[in-house]
From TrEMBL:
The keyword Nucleus does not apply. It comes from Halalkalibacter hemicellulosilyticusJCM 9152. InterPro entries: Cas1, CRISPR-assoc_Cas1, CRISPR-assoc_Cas1_C, CRISPR-assoc_Cas1_DVULG, CRISPR-assoc_Cas1_N. Homodimer, forms a heterotetramer with a Cas2 homodimer. Transmembrane segments: none annotated. One of its GO terms (biological process) is defense response to virus. The gene is cas1. Its cofactor is Mg(2+); Mn(2+). It comes from the Bacteria. One of its GO terms (molecular function) is DNA binding. This is CRISPR-associated endonuclease Cas1. CRISPR (clustered regularly interspaced short palindromic repeat), is an adaptive immune system that provides protection against mobile genetic elements (viruses, transposable elements and conjugative plasmids). CRISPR clusters contain spacers, sequences complementary to antecedent mobile elements, and target invading nucleic acids. CRISPR clusters are transcribed and processed into CRISPR RNA (crRNA). Acts as a dsDNA endonuclease. Involved in the integration of spacer DNA into the CRISPR cassette. Gene3D superfamilies: CRISPR-associated endonuclease Cas1, C-terminal domain, CRISPR-associated endonuclease Cas1, N-terminal domain. Belongs to the CRISPR-associated endonuclease Cas1 family. Signal peptide: none annotated.
């Protein structure tokens, strides 16, 4: 399994990346701002349009170092992908099953089962740890509704129906999400998801966290030999890493949402960390984005016991482990894909 190392986040939008030996060099108007050994890196994420040298892109592709370009606000632009090293038999199986609704549903329902289960766990944990801060009866009712949806998901045999149950579960979960914000409640209010653009501070952080998680998940899928752009639940669309979006469904709540809540509740991010644009989009300031990324990298190093393997790993390795388990299922080594069911 690929060892989790470090990701270099380049947050200044006017930085050009170049190659010098086995090092990435950060340049601003021909002035050298820094250099980082590439053998220490698993990935590079650059926010902005300035770009990177062909030599660096070639090096990263050859060494299987993820090189991803995002806009300043965190919207995905492109990712450098080298020669496919995936097992051709594995990818052919993936493509064949993605074209079959029955096979796709069997895999997709476990993604959604994991998502709903983890949403239920988040709600139950919040009820147990903060009974005086939340509406306990509403939380218990929501937990029961999610349990009923999990039963329906388990026996669901149609993709459109599965998407409907996923949407219903998300609706119940989002209705109580605002109560999980325990600090800075006047400044951070969640009324529901707004994506393009995010129209409040909470959605701005959630969208940014989902972008980072999708990038990590796509890199993990490619590393184990799968095609991150051919999914089972999310339909194929040019430029969209559909399988990465599939796989990250079960991780959105326990990985990304809880991370955003922790930043707010620990007051590591404040109201002055955001600004609004004319189109009502709410974005993080440069300093806030740097603090967010630093905390994200720290969280990836935290150790957990994987619920299926029973082994201690870092949070940052979870996308790789789930990618490996998915590959094992597609190869026929497992009877079904085991979702990440966190406790």
């Amino acid at each position: 399994m690929k060892k989790l190392l470090n990701t270099l986040f380049v947050t200044q939008p006017d930085i050009y990346l170049s190659l010098d030996g086995d090092n990435v060099v950060l340049l601003k108007e021909q002035e050298k701002l820094g250099r980082v050994p590439l053998h220490n890196l698993e990935g590079i994420v650059s926010f902005g349009y300035t770009g990177a040298s062909p030599a660096l892109m070639g090096y990263c592709a050859e060494k299987n170092i993820s090189l991803c370009f995002l806009t300043k606000s965190g919207r995905f632009l492109a990712r450098v992908v080298g020669q496919s090293r995936g097992n051709v038999v594995l990818r052919k199986t993936q493509y064949r099953m993605s074209e079959n609704d029955q096979d796709s549903t069997k895999i997709a329902r476990n993604f959604i089962l994991g998502k709903v289960y983890n949403s239920k766990w988040i709600i139950e944990r919040m009820t147990r740890e903060h009974p005086l801060r939340v509406d306990v009866e509403q939380f218990k009712t929501t937990s029961e509704l999610l349990s009923k949806i999990m039963k329906e998901v388990r026996k669901c045999d149609h993709l459109e129906m599965l998407r409907g149950w996923e949407g219903q579960a998300a609706l119940y979960y989002n209705k109580v999400f605002n109560q999980m914000i325990l600090q800075q409640k006047e400044d951070f209010i969640f009324k529901g998801r707004s994506r393009r653009p995010p129209k409040d501070k909470v959605n701005a952080m959630m969208s940014f966290a989902y972008t980072l998680l999708a990038n990590d998940t796509a890199a993990a899928l490619e590393a184990v030999g799968l095609d991150a752009y051919v999914g089972f639940m999310h339909q194929d669309r040019p430029g969209r890493a559909s399988l990465a979006l599939d796989l990250m469904e079960e991780l959105r709540g326990v990985y990304a949402d809880r991370f955003v809540l922790s930043l707010i509740n620990r007051q590591e991010i404040q109201a002055n960390s955001f600004y609004a644009k004319e189109n009502e989009a709410v974005l993080m300031t440069d300093d806030a984005r740097k603090a967010f990324l630093k905390a994200w990298q720290t969280r990836k190093q935290d150790k957990i016991t994987h619920p299926y393997l029973g082994e201690k790993i870092s949070w940052g390795l979870v996308p790789y482990v789930q990618s490996l388990l998915l590959a094992r299922y597609l190869r026929g080594d497992l009877d079904e894909y085991p979702p990440f069911l966190w406790k």
